[in-house]
Amino acid sequence: MTLSLRQSRAVQLLFVGVLSLGLLVQTGCDSESNLVEVPELPTPETPTAPSGLEAASGDSEVELVWDTVDPVDSYIVSYSVYRTTSSGGALPEEPVATGVSGGSYTDAELENGTTYYYRVTSTTGGGEAESEASNEAAVTPFAGPPDRP
Q1: Model pTM?
Q2: Per-residue pLDDT for the chain (149 aa), expressed as one digit of tens each?
Q3: Torsion angle of C-alpha atoms 3, 7, 13, 17, degrees rounded to 10
Q4: What is the rounded CA–CA span in Å between residue 18 and residue 40?
Q5: How far apart are CA 76 and CA 45, in angstroms?
Q6: Cβ atoms of residues 56 and 139 within 8 Å
Q7: Measured distance CA(40)–CA(141) in Å, rounded
């Protein structure tokens, strides 16, 4: 019989568990006296906000770029992008994009001639903490000039 790597690993873990239980029984130890208290994992601090947000317009789309936050210092895993059609104010409840990795994002299928305002936040691993918003970038997508003969 041939086992897959996953099945083989499961059998190894089962064997180790049975062996450990056998040692506890042989030595007369009960499982409760050998319990080890596992400390809680620290809650990540609120990450630093991304900076340097810039936007470039295209035909029905916007290309955003920003300076990323050092993941070693802030446990950053991803970024969220927020879009509104009015400047300032609170962030919308729902971002247009979440889980963005790196420092760029393209927002497509926009209405040419409408001005959009963007801000970006950084988010920790499981979404436990979200930074303040980045600076705001305003941009108006437009159709390019017609082809010339």
Answers
A1: 0.67
A2: 554 444 444 445 454 454 444 444 455 555 556 666 766 655 667 888 999 999 999 999 999 999 998 775 557 779 999 999 999 989 999 999 999 999 999 999 999 999 999 999 998 877 778 999 999 999 999 987 655 45
A3: -90
A4: 27
A5: 10
A6: yes
A7: 48
